[in-house]
């Protein structure tokens, strides 16, 4: 005989009952079927709500009519479709149950309380109506059916609302009952009788357990749990879009997964079927041809050590602490005695090795009761200050990874915790079962959805995600968007999902939950109605559960740079060519690095010096290997390299600047280049990178423009005035030429002093040949002397800068290791 259990999700309406009937009758052709049914969808919740309403004296009529509508509309629908469906008989049973319910509710209202025994009688009423509806449908379809009464044949003891099966006692009762073997058996789930013959229920969602008890009692060949998903997935498919079906699980794996929140199976289900070694299959009523998930005593999956991830929400952590805990024998047993006496189930326990405190997690619904029983049990210790007041922390979740193979593998916990840190979630407590089959972490509830998404990604997909927000669509921003558009499909083929979710200029911000279409970003931006603020994008990230958000600041704006600490603290990586943050005060510079370290986010700015050239990274690598900067000389400005190169060729300063500007080689305001300020900023960044503590004012800067030149006005006015500097400049160039030299704008660090200014250099000087936008950086260090390390190449231009930003962006991808 096979046992088939159909949950409320499979019994939502008349059509679903027919689908169930089709499945059962099809299977009945080859083997006898025992069907265990839940109440129709929503009915048990409705009954629970009714009990609570009655206790609090609230009006129950709306809930009653809702219940009646659910039940009677299914019966009427079936009667309409099947001429021989005996709706009157089924309706009679349903009416009896509703009458019984109303009487009981009245009693509860009068008393203002509901004993658990009465509660149990009420909340399983839906199951009893459900079996009548279904047994009649089977009969009307021409097959014999009998209703099995679990309150006469199944034995379970303990609490009225959370009883545990006695399989041996149930076997005896079944052996005495002579039940027709060739009829379809239909049994209400969720309830049984105790040894005193009273009705008990098996805990919410307990029909799975009923099926397992029945299967064990009658030695069924299989126990199938039919639900609304194709089987057990490696994460809840309703929460993780990419969750994959697990073909096979061991009993223990299934137990751990369900215990830690995988609602697809009730945690108590596995006990009986494992003990009697009955195979269990989870299958989909809506997709009966799918094979489902097989649960047996083996664990087969060579590919995945971790089989699944689950989360338990609405968890409260209780902390019992105080000087009285130390060395006092029996504290733990007193705590858990008190808790279990009140039928509160403990989900997870941790104890500090100092024995100063014991913490454990319970369902939040039990928290008020738990506090009360502990305060009673430890009244004396609390009043004598041997214990601190019992502390409760709400709104937590437990996230667990499960797999039999975890025992033999190293690095799993590391990967799990790396995933949680990637989610930026604070771990409140950790527990690992001694079987090493599961590891659980208690985290803030509001982060559980993100945590499960990232953990799933890291264990089950090779997908790496970058969730980008681009601010600034000027020269560099535009070039970056173009490169991103081109690379997106290539990265995708390498399992990297790089999407731009937001794009902003100084006026507007376009946001798209699917990621912006980069081929049309101009029109997306033009029609956008929101504005770039941290609050706006933070809300967007939360709403869309983005897990690796990066702000790419392609502006040269100081007001945006001032917010980097806030960006990092809000969980964003920051990638930028904007030099303003790194050249702000030393205090802010340090604060930025501290924020990045604390939030485990990256602040990346390789393009601050030498655009796409590998300057910062090289310097950081050298210094972390123990090198020290001794001196530095370089042409750090692509625009000045270009302009001074053009002066060699006989061009005027005004003409050279205009060309550099139109080629996109200058800062948006060319005065930033010509004033020397841009070079000074780069020099400051180099110096700070090398460990020198200094401010921008400490740098000696000589402007490119003659002291007499008036550089006021708008960008355009400035450019119009620039020819006035030509004559004076020509003289400088000519003087140098007379000595066989050329002019170069050089930044240097020497003896702890930073300078930038114009130098005339001869052909023997390494910077003589540097022009046309090239940069050259000569780094003299402990390891590189007397011949310095020279980095040379184009140090300006939208494409190389954007490519450098792109490279930084790729470095925000989380650390990954295959396990
Ligand atoms: P039923 O009414 O059939 O008993 P439940 O709602 O109790 O159905 O259980 C099925 C639900 O369990 C699914 O719809 C799914 O959202 C949830 N679930 C949670 N974790 C998992 C998982 N790992 N695999 C499959 N389903 C899961
Ligand atoms: N109907 C009960 C509940 O919702 C039992 C079950 O369906 O498993 O809790
Ligand atoms: Mg269920």
From TrEMBL:
Keywords from the UniProt entry: Amino-acid biosynthesis, ATP-binding, Kinase, Lysine biosynthesis, Metal-binding, Methionine biosynthesis, Multifunctional enzyme, NAD, NADP, Nucleotide-binding, Oxidoreductase, Sodium, Threonine biosynthesis, Transferase
Reported function: Bifunctional aspartate kinase and homoserine dehydrogenase that catalyzes the first and the third steps toward the synthesis of lysine, methionine and threonine from aspartate.
GO MF term set: aspartate kinase activity; ATP binding; homoserine dehydrogenase activity; metal ion binding; NADP binding
Highest taxon listed in the record's lineage: Bacteria
Residue span, ACT domain: 320-395
Family: In the C-terminal section; belongs to the homoserine dehydrogenase family. In the N-terminal section; belongs to the aspartokinase family.
Gene Ontology BP, a term: homoserine biosynthetic process
EC code(s) of this entry: 2.7.2.4, 1.1.1.3
Encoding gene (name): thrA
PROSITE patterns: ACT (PS51671), ASPARTOKINASE (PS00324), HOMOSER_DHGENASE (PS01042)
Species this protein is from: Catenovulum maritimum
Reactions catalysed, as given in the entry: L-aspartate + ATP = 4-phospho-L-aspartate + ADP; L-homoserine + NAD(+) = L-aspartate 4-semialdehyde + NADH + H(+); L-homoserine + NADP(+) = L-aspartate 4-semialdehyde + NADPH + H(+)
Obligatory cofactor(s): a metal cation
Pfam families hit by this protein: AA_kinase, ACT_9, Homoserine_dh, NAD_binding_3
InterPro entries xrefs: AceGlu_kinase-like_sf, ACT-like_dom_sf, ACT_Aspartokinase, ACT_dom, AK-HD, AK-HSDH_N, Asp/Glu/Uridylate_kinase, Asp/hSer_DH_NAD-bd
Name of the protein described by the UniProt record: Bifunctional aspartokinase/homoserine dehydrogenase
Pathway: Amino-acid biosynthesis; L-lysine biosynthesis via DAP pathway; (S)-tetrahydrodipicolinate from L-aspartate: step 1/4; Amino-acid biosynthesis; L-methionine biosynthesis via de novo pathway; L-homoserine from L-aspartate: step 1/3; Amino-acid biosynthesis; L-threonine biosynthesis; L-threonine from L-aspartate: step 1/5; Amino-acid biosynthesis; L-threonine biosynthesis; L-threonine from L-aspartate: step 3/5
Keyword DNA damage in record: no
UniProt subunit comment: Homotetramer.
């Amino acid at each position: 005989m096979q046992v088939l259990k159909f949950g409320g999700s499979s019994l939502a309406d008349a059509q679903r009952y027919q689908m169930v009937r089709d499945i059962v009758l099809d299977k009945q052709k080859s083997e006898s079927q025992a069907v265990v049914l839940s109440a129709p969808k929503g009915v048990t919740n409705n009954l629970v709500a009714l009990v609570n309403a009655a206790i609090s004296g609230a009006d129950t009529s709306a809930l009653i009519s809702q219940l009646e509508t659910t039940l009677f509309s299914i019966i009427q629908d079936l009667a309409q479709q099947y001429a021989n469906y005996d709706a009157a008989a089924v309706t009679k049973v349903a009416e009896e149950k509703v009458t019984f319910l109303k009487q009981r509710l009245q009693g509860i209202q009068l008393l203002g309380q509901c004993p658990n025994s009465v509660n149990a009688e009420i909340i399983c009423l839906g199951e009893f109506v459900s079996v009548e509806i279904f047994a009649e449908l089977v009969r009307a379809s021409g097959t014999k059916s009998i209703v099995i009464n679990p309150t006469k044949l199944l034995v379970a003891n303990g609490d009225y609302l959370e009883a545990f099966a006695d399989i041996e006692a149930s076997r005896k009762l079944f052996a005495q009952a002579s039940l027709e073997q060739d009829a379809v058996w239909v049994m209400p789930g969720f309830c049984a009788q105790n040894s005193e013959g009273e009705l008990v229920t098996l805990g919410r969602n307990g029909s799975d357990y009923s099926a397992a008890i029945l299967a064990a009692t009658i030695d069924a060949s299989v126990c199938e749990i039919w639900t609304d998903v194709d089987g057990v997935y490696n994460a809840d498919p309703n929460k993780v879009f990419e969750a994959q079906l697990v073909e096979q699980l061991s009993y223990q794996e299934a137990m751990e997964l369900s215990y830690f929140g995988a609602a697809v199976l009730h945690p108590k289900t596995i006990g009986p079927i494992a003990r009697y070694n009955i195979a269990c299959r989870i299958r989909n009523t809506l997709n009966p041809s799918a094979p489902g998930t097989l649960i047996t005593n083996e664990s087969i999956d060579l590919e995945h050590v971790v089989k699944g991830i689950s989360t338990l929400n609405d968890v409260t952590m209780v902390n019992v602490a105080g000087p009285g805990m130390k060395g006092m024998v029996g504290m733990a047993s007193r705590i858990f005695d008190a808790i279990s006496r009140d039928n509160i189930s403990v989900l997870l326990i941790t104890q500090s090795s100092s024995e100063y405190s014991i913490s454990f997690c319970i369902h939040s619904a039990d928290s008020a009761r738990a506090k009360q029983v502990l305060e009673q049990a430890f009244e004396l210790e609390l009043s004598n200050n041997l214990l601190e007041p019992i502390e409760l922390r709400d709104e937590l979740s437990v996230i667990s990874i499960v797999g039999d193979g975890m025992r033999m593998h190293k690095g799993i916990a590391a990967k799990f915790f790396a995933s949680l840190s990637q989610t930026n979630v604070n771990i409140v407590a950790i527990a690992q079962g001694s079987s090493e089959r599961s590891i659980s972490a208690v985290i803030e509830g509001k982060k559980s959805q993100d945590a499960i998404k990232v953990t799933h990604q890291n264990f089950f997909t090779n997908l790496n995600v970058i969730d980008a927000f681009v601010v600034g669509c000027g020269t560099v921003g535009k070039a970056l968007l173009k490169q991103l558009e081109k690379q997106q499909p290539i990265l995708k083929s390498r399992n990297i999902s790089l999407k731009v979710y937001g794009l902003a200029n100084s006026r507007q911000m376009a946001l798209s939950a699917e990621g912006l279409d980069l081929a049309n970003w101009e029109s997306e931006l033009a029609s956008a109605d929101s504005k770039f603020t941290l609050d706006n994008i933070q809300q967007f990230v939360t709403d869309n559960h983005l897990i690796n958000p990066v702000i790419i600041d392609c502006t040269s704006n100081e007001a945006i740079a001032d917010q980097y600490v806030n960006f990092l603290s809000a969980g964003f990586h920051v990638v930028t060519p904007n030099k303003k943050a790194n050249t702000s005060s030393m205090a802010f510079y340090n604060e930025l690095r501290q924020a990045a370290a604390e939030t485990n986010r990256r602040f990346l700015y390789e393009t601050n010096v030498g655009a796409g050239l590998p300057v910062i990274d090289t310097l950081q690598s050298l210094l972390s290997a123990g090198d020290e900067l001794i001196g530095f000389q370089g042409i750090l400005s692509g625009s000045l390299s270009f302009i001074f190169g053009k002066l060699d060729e006989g061009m005027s300063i005004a003409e050279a600047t205009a060309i550099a500007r139109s080629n996109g080689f200058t800062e948006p305001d060319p005065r930033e280049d010509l004033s020397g300020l841009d070079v000074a900023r780069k020099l400051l960044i180099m110096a700070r990178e090398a460990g020198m503590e200094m401010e921008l004012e400490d740098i000696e800067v000589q402007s490119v423009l003659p002291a007499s030149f008036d550089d006021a006005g708008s960008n355009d006015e400035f450019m119009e005035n620039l020819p006035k500097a030509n004559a004076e400049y020509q003289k400088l160039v000519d003087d140098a030429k007379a000595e066989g030299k050329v002019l170069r704008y050089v930044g240097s660090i020497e003896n702890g002093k930073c300078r930038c200014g114009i130098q005339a250099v001869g052909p023997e000087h390494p910077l003589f040949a540097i022009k046309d936008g090239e940069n050259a950086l000569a780094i003299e260090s402990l390891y590189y002397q007397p011949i310095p390390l020279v980095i040379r190449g184009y140090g300006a231009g939208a494409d190389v800068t954007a490519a450098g930003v792109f490279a930084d962006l790729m470095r925000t991808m989380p650390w990954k290791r295959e396990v």
